[in-house]
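Is zinc ion placement plausible here? Inputs below.
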Amino acid sequence: MNNPSDTLLAQYAPLEIWKAAENQAARSPHKQHKTGAIIYSGSSYRSRDDIYSTGCAHPHDGGKVSRSTHAEQHAISRLPNNCGYSICLIVTLTRNNHYATCSRPCKGCAESLCKHCCIVIYAEKCTDGSWAIRSESPTRLLRGFLIPTKENT
Ligand SMILES: [Zn+2]
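Reply from A.M.:
I modeled the complex. Tokens:
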């Protein structure tokens, strides 16, 4: 499967949010890996009005620090004040608009997300070819939980 199924995605976030993140990713000027991020209300999400900010960018490097502005940083920079309990959902697409093997935020983005979001959600392809969705606090990501199940080669 090139992409996680809608059924799987919908178990973790409204499909509307996933599609919004895919649309952000598709806007990225990068050709190889295009990332989109949506920060939305985790406590009151009912409609698009509860999306706090969106961001797009930039090559995603699977956990290493990069100097370019990443989608997550872009979304954070556009956040209004006092967002409260918020979730950052990240989608990275390949050249063919398929989900990338792992859309995990890099260390720098995870550090920034700690200050603004309680939860980060992203998709990851398992070694058996199936998809998993990660829903985890950025703090735990930084502490090394949920390392990628497949090495980036
Ligand atoms: Zn990043």
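Short version: The mean pLDDT is 86.
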